[in-house]
Amino acid sequence: GEKIPPTAEELRRAAMPVELQQGDTICVIGNSLADRMQHDGWVEAVVQSETKGMELSWRDMGYSGDTLMKRSRSRGWWSAEQYLSHAKADVIFAFFGYNESFSNDTDQFEADLKEMVGKYKGQKFNGSSAPRIVLFSPIAFENHGVEYLPDGKEHNERLAKYTTSLEKIAKELDVGFVDLFNPSAKLYTSAKSPLTLNGVHLTAEGNRQLAEVIGSALFMKSVTADSSMEKLRQAILDKNWHWHNRYRATDGNDIWGSRSVLSF
Q1: 249 vs 167, residue with greater confidence
Q2: pLDDT at residue 1 above 70?
Q3: Listed residue (184, 198, 108, 199) closest to 139, CA to CA
Q4: SS3 for the chain, per residue?
Q5: What is each CA distance from 139 to 35, 40, 112, 235, 257, in whole angstroms?
Q6: CA dist 66 → 61, 71, 105, 203, 245 (Å)
Q7: pLDDT value at position 147?
Q8: How far is 43 from 62, CA to CA, in rounded Å?
Q9: Whose CA is closest to 39, among 62, 23, 71?
Q10: What pTM value is reported for the model?
Q11: How far is CA 96 from CA 2, 51, 113, 236, in A?
């Protein structure tokens, strides 16, 4: 019989960086970009709003200073892999590349990225299947036009190269990829006021606008983050507060490190 051409909806779904499924646990890893997102809640609000009824769980494990290969923690802290298993990760959103870009060595970055993705694809953190992985590029550096901050030219030259590396490895290893570098650079040019505090760390408004970029990329359609999500976002922020105070307990060394076993 005659082949029926795919519908626009089928084509859209086929182009998505990841297929989200009922009851998925999404774990976010990476450095400051990932870490700071949880304190505004916009990215999760967009994803939860677009997947209403799918009962997704979201665990932000971002940690400022992290790189692909180095993730310094207090003594006694679980490894990243133990936390991914504890959370039963079905999907991993990985935000790396900014910290690594200062070494300006994309060959090493690509080798490390292959190692991490290969290792994670060989795991069954949820107990039954390999995680679905999406690699997100770093955002661009915003020029504030002030003498006490860099103009970002050198940063962006490096970040553009690392974005290319991320896309290349994502295709090679058959995982999702979302470009945040080029869309964020475009947002800066049209912003009425700076979207970052210092060129790299997003403001609450910057995170809201980036959430639209991420949502639009994940769902392959225009997505808006606005006040209609406020009740949902506040619930997410409350949940994040509880998660953060367990995952990042104040002075964790007193709780699970060497001082936790001191006798008095």
Answers
A1: 167
A2: no
A3: 184
A4: CCCCCCCHHHHHHHHCCCCCCCCCEEEEEECHHHHHHCCCCHHHHHHHHHCCCCCCEEEECCCCCCCCCCCCCCCCCCCHHHHHHHHCCCEEEEECCHHHHCCCCHHHHHHHHHHHHHHHHCCCCCCCCCCEEEEECCCCCCCCCCCCCCCCHHHHHHHHHHHHHHHHHHHHHCCEEECCHHHHHHHHHHCCCCCECCCCCECHHHHHHHHHHHHHHHHCCCCCCCHHHHHHHHHHHHHHHHHHHHHCCCCHHHCCCHHHHCCC
A5: 14, 17, 20, 27, 34
A6: 10, 5, 17, 20, 19
A7: 95
A8: 13
A9: 62
A10: 0.94
A11: 46, 25, 9, 23
CA distance 182 to 160: 8
Predicted confidence at residue 206, as pLDDT, reads 98
Q: Which residues pair with 202 in a beta bridge?
A: 196
Taking only the tens place, the pLDDT of each residue in 197-235 is 999 999 999 999 999 999 999 999 999 999 999 999 999
The residue type found at 225 is A
> Around Cβ 12, how many Cβ atoms within 10 Å?
13
Place of tokens 């971002």: 62
- The pLDDT value recorded for residue 41 is 97
83-119 residues labelled b (16+ CB within 10 A) or e (exposed)? bbbebbbbbbbbbbbbbbbeeeebeebbebbeebbee
